[in-house]
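Many introductory courses stop at the sequence. We go one step further.
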Amino acid sequence: MSLTIKILFYIVTSFCVATGQCLLSLYAKGIPSPFGISRWFYYSLSNHFLYGGVALYGVSFVMFIILLRMFPLAQISITLIAILMIMICFYNYMFGQELNLIQYMGAFLAVTGLIALNW
């Protein structure tokens, strides 16, 4: 398998995990209050964010297994975390959940460190 396809697997897997987390976050924000089992059950059955989040986590699980056949676990984990942090910073901006400068600098340093460890 070519290096381009392997890199694409990394990016798509990270995209699925980050997007699944965002969808589940949107699902959780809409849970009715006060909490009741019957209200939560009906809300969950009709919520497309829940279905999308679970589906994307399922896809990312399968892709993670495929990546494990190609690379060592440490390399996959480090690379996926770095890509995931970049995507989560983007999603925070997209959904209007601002991060401050210290948080952006911390994410940058963490990603830089993870990339350095990967080499």
